[in-house]
Amino acid sequence: MKYIVLGLGHFGKSLAIHLTELGHEVIAADKNMGIVEQLKDKITHTVCMDTTDREAMTSLPLKDSDAVIVAIGEDEGASLLTTALLKQLQVKRIIGRVVSDLQKTVLQAMQIDEYIMPEEEAAERLAMRLDNIDIIDSFKVSDRYSIVEIRVPSKYVGMTLKDANLTNKYKVIVLTTVKTYEKSVKEKVVLHKEASGIAGSETVLQENDLLVVFGELADIKRLIQNVD
């Protein structure tokens, strides 16, 4: 697929590099020539340009892209002008980065339905981890539902999912189990995770495994606390 990433700060740079590594064609633009030069070997194509300039923007293959991501963070004005310009140019899929409530309101007024709040999402995920030591990571799907990675409660170690009956007891669905082990990478020991595939009724819950569960946060917390 073909993506255009506008803005190569920490977020935009990371996004463009990861998309390139995943095999997608990525055109990344920033007005800072130093950043563009620095990343030219890590991203499919890099361009130095002012994304608020209509003439410059029309030089990009906007119509052929599967999505254009406005990753500009620090300069909210430039981010909104860039987004407005993309709307005028009738780009089919625009994903905006939001750094304030006001910016979010303006994007909604522009009828931009896809936007990301990386700082807020990262803060929320950290808060959940600090709130409960058994929560390893989390992802909010909607206002009600989350996907959360937790440790297997000791009460259920050695049991199959069928015997544990977590869905009926806690109204949560186990998506997969994850094994963790240490791995040496470039002379550093890092913790590596490996999912076991889609969980089934005969999946056995092993000690030190992690569970990836879907449900309401209150129900997931009841599972962690073993509250029947």
From TrEMBL:
GO terms for biological process: monoatomic ion transmembrane transport. Residues 1-117 form the RCK N-terminal domain. PROSITE patterns: RCK_C (PS51202), RCK_N (PS51201). The keyword Transport applies. Keywords: Ion channel, Ion transport, Transport. Residues 134-228 form the RCK C-terminal domain. PANTHER family: KTR SYSTEM POTASSIUM UPTAKE PROTEIN C, POTASSIUM CHANNEL PROTEIN 2-RELATED-RELATED. This is Potassium channel family protein. It comes from Sphingobacterium suaedae. The lineage of its organism: Bacteria, Pseudomonadati, Bacteroidota, Sphingobacteriia, Sphingobacteriales.
